[in-house]
Amino acid sequence: MSTTATRDLFGGAITATLPAELVDASDLRQVPDTQEVFLYPDSDISIIFEILQCVDATEAVDIAKLHFGSIAHDNDAVEQTVIEVSKLTGEGSGNRTPLPVVLRGTQLVRKFNHADPDELRVLLAVYRLQEQNVDLVLSMNVPMKTSDGANIAEGDFITARETFSTAVESLRIVDYDLFV
After folding, report:
1. Is residue 67, in this structure, part of any structural domain at all?
2. pTM to 2 decimals?
3. Domain-embedded: residue 16
4. 31, 84, 131, 171: most buried by Cβ count inside 10 Å?
């Protein structure tokens, strides 16, 4: 079991609990100011926090599906499947962080001109900030089977999904001035 730590995102304006061993991608390459990207040191799993303009949808399910479709487009996916969409419910944390809509899906993505596509599981959470016209999107990409032979076991996916759930439930917007 890995240890977790609360990470400051976007200069501390947002916080979330993540495994301590994750690598901040900005230490390795340039990352847009609207993103925070974390990589697992021993696999191709990534976690991305992204500040985006609200998509043109009002229903939670449609909002999540539009963002999932956008990720599929960016990945040049040859196939995409939404498995499940749900709206988190509960009391919240006592601050103004909205409850997200969560989506689980798969994408088939051809990488590096390989004939066989990689099977990518995508976990997605969207926090709609209506007043700021912002969708805060948290996504986790888990390449289950790749054309270069790298495979992630189902048990490792379950662990990744637990990590995603912890990040989703712990995410807190500390400073709304980030969105001004």
Report:
1. yes
2. 0.93
3. yes
4. 171
